[in-house]
Amino acid sequence: MGLQKKEHSNVVVAQLSSVHPWDDIRIFWKECCSLAKEGFVVHLVARGDTKEVPNQVILHKFEGCKGRLQRLFRSGEQVYQIAMDLDADIYHLHDPELIKCGIRLKKLGKKVIYDAHEDLPAQVMAKGYIPRPFRKIVAFWAKHLLLKADRSFDGIVAATPEIAKRFSNRNTVIVRNYPLLSEFQTEPLLSYEKRPNRIVYIGGLSEKRGIREITNAISALPDDLSVRLDLAGSFGNSDLKDQILQNNKVQFHGFLNRAEIQKLLSEVKIGLVVLHPTPNHIKSLPIKMFEYMAAGIPVIASDFPLWREIVTAYDCGLLVDPYNVEDIAKAMDFLLRNPERAKEMGHNGKKAFQTVINWEVEFQQLLRLYS
């Protein structure tokens, strides 16, 4: 059974985050806005500095804490105090730091849902800032925390099937982080055939996300292809940024807003998601790969089992060894020299997005849990 049924217009929902900014794509633009559209009264407690929040979502801002330890012990208490004042029917938590807050709310008779965005224990094992000897201890603590949520809460939302396997709660639903249909309704001004040979990667710019391999692959392509690599996102390391931007085939755009991302995707021929096989990457469903598909461009993706299922099922791109520069360069070369096949793959991806791989389809799972 799902949560107690009520008319949506009478149900007050509080979405809580101590870590994410108020305009986080999954939390605000997808979950909060979709629930508000269905008639729920939606409150969002999150970090932010905006004065206006669209789509009838009521924002409750708090300052948050800068350090990880402060965030762990102080931000949760800040969020809890605001959450208490809201007296909501359903509390939807988005951070493991808030699980203790959720348990306190359960003791008051509230309905609580935990949204597992990532495989927390696997993520902990890959965290560079945690000294290696302590990672297993922290991962054990993370498993214990998730077990408490699993046993105590009214429902669990998992972002991938792999994450869902960690939970036995009978109200566990999978809500994948697919793109919004509404963001990809406009036809691009430039047809695929007329676009220059530009390849894009959007996301975090780091070594674990394959930035060295893809720039080396671009350098390995013959000059007759006149290729440019467009990078959008943020570098976590200034030295790495300086090294990558020395490549004259690289165009760095910095951080782009949603409209700017749509425009960039309408101008390029190939989208890259060549991440290294960290535990978190292997089990994730990369939103950027789905956005490339939504934009109608073929993808070049790391050959992970979960990603392989998608790319092969929909015939929307090529798979590569993320450590093999030659393999990546060959995939780029093939798609650029075979534009009809590349266009076909892009079309296949877009069709999959329009019919299956979109947020509007996934949201029905969340709606059933709430109802």
Q: Kindly state the number of beta strands.
A: 13
Give the CATH topology of the largest domain: Rossmann fold
Q: What is the approximate shape?
A: globular
Number of domains: 2
Looking at this structure, what is the CATH superfamily of the largest domain? Answer: Glycogen Phosphorylase B
**Number of helical elements:** 15
Q: How much of the sequence is in beta strands?
A: 15-25%
Radius of gyration: 21 Å
Describe the structure.
43% of the residues lie in helices and 17% in strands. It is α/β, with parallel strands linked by helices and 371 residues long. It folds into two domains: 8-175, Rossmann fold; 182-355, Glycogen Phosphorylase B (Rossmann fold), CATH 3.40.50.2000. Strands 3-2-1-4-5-6-7 form a seven-stranded parallel β-sheet, with helices on both faces. A six-stranded parallel β-sheet has the order 10-9-8-11-12-13, with helices on both faces. Strand 12 (299-302), helix 12 and strand 13 (317-320) form a beta-alpha-beta unit. Helix 1 (25-37) packs across helix 15 and helix 7 (211-220) packs across helix 13. The longest helix is centred in the middle third of the chain and has 21 residues, at 132-152. The protein is globular. The relative contact order is 0.11.
